[in-house]
C-alpha cells in the first residue's frame, strides 16, 4: 500500500482547470456523479480553514451536544471527505453511500466542481473561509505532514505556488470568491473563521438558526467548550492522530497546529508581506468579501 500511496502522493493533476491529487483525478467520474440527498448538509472549505472545527461543531449540533456520541468514530468517518480516494481505503463516496440520512459531508472542491446533485436537491451548505495569509502558512506545514501532497519546497517557494493557485484544490482567491457569489442563489451559510474566533457563541447561534434547530444555552456552551482548540487538540476522534503514520506524520507538524489568527506574522518576511498584499489587492478586486488578518 505504501508504494501505491507514493505513486499518487507526489503529483497534482488538472481537473477542469483545478490541481487535484492524482488519486482523486483517477476516480473523478464517481465524484462527479455523486448523488446528494435533499437532507444532506455539506461542509465546504478551502483546506486549512477550520474544516475539522466546524465539522465537530455541526456533528455535536446534530447529536444535541452529546459528546460521547461524537466520540463514536474519527471525524473523517463521521463527516466523510466526499472526493477523497486513497489506495487501499474506502473512498469518501463509498463511505457516504453506506451512511444513513441525514449525512454530514465534507468537501474542499471549488464551487464549479461540486457535483450537480447538490444544486438540484437544494441542499443546505456551510462554507467556512479563513484569511489568505494564515491559510498559506497553515497549508505549508500541512503539506509537510500530510504525505499525499507533493514536496512543498521552501516557504518562499510554497508561497509562490499558493499565490499562483498551483497547490491542491487550486486558487484560494477563486475558491472563496466562487462560494461567496454562489450564496446569493443557494442555501449557503458563509462563515468567517475570524468571526468564529472572535465570537464563537454568536456565530453558532446564527448557524443554529440556519439549520432550523433550537438548542438550550447550556448545550451551546457545552459545544463551545468541547470545540475549543485546546480540547479538540487532545481529542483523538478529532485531532487525526488515529490516521496512519504513512498518511500523516504528526512528528513533522501536528494536524492541529496553532488554531490562531495572525500566525502569518511569525512566517512572512516584510518583502513577502508586501508582495503578497499587492497581489492580493489585484486578485480580490471587485469582490465584496473582506477578511480580518488579525484580531
UniProtKB/TrEMBL annotation:
Pfam families: Sulfotransfer_1
Source domain of life: Eukaryota
Assigned keywords, A-Z: Transferase
EC code: 2.8.2.-
UniProt-listed SUPFAM superfamilies: P-loop containing nucleoside triphosphate hydrolases
Domain Sulfotransferase: 38-287
Enzyme superclass (EC): transferase
Similarity-based family: Belongs to the sulfotransferase 1 family.
Protein name: Sulfotransferase
Species whose genome carries this gene: Galeopterus variegatus (Malayan flying lemur)
Amino acid at each position: 500500500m505504501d508504494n501505491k500511496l507514493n505513486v499518487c502522493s507526489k503529483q497534482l493533476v488538472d481537473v477542469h482547470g483545478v490541481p487535484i491529487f492524482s488519486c482523486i483525478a483517477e476516480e473523478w467520474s464517481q465524484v462527479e456523479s455523486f448523488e446528494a440527498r435533499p437532507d444532506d448538509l455539506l461542509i465546504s472549505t478551502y483546506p486549512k480553514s477550520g474544516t475539522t472545527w466546524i465539522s465537530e461543531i455541526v456533528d455535536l449540533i446534530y447529536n444535541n451536544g452529546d459528546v460521547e456520541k461524537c466520540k463514536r468514530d474519527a471525524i473523517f468517518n463521521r463527516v466523510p471527505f466526499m472526493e477523497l480516494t486513497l489506495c487501499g481505503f474506502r473512498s469518501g463516496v463509498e463511505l457516504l453511500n453506506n451512511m444513513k440520512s441525514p449525512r454530514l459531508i465534507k468537501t474542499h472542491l471549488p464551487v464549479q466542481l461540486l457535483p450537480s446533485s447538490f444544486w438540484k436537491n437544494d441542499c443546505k451548505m456551510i462554507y467556512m473561509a479563513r484569511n489568505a495569509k494564515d491559510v498559506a502558512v497553515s497549508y505549508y506545514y500541512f503539506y509537510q505532514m500530510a504525505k499525499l501532497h507533493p514536496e512543498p519546497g521552501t516557504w518562499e517557494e510554497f508561497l509562490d505556488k499558493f499565490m499562483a493557485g498551483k497547490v491542491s484544490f487550486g486558487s484560494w482567491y477563486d475558491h472563496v470568491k466562487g462560494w461567496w457569489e454562489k450564496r446569493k442563489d443557494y442555501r449557503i451559510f458563509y462563515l468567517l473563521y475570524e468571526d468564529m474566533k472572535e465570537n464563537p457563541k454568536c456565530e453558532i447561534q446564527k448557524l443554529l438558526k440556519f439549520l432550523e434547530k433550537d438548542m438550550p444555552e447550556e448545550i451551546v456552551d457545552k459545544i463551545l467548550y468541547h470545540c475549543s482548540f485546546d480540547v479538540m487538540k487532545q481529542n483523538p476522534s478529532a485531532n487525526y492522530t488515529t490516521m496512519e503514520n504513512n498518511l500523516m506524520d504528526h512528528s513533522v507538524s501536528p494536524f492541529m497546529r496553532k488554531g490562531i489568527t495572525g500566525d502569518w506574522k511569525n512566517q512572512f518576511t516584510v518583502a513577502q508581506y508586501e508582495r503578497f498584499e499587492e497581489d492580493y489587492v489585484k486578485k480580490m478586486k471587485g469582490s465584496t468579501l473582506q477578511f480580518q488578518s488579525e484580531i
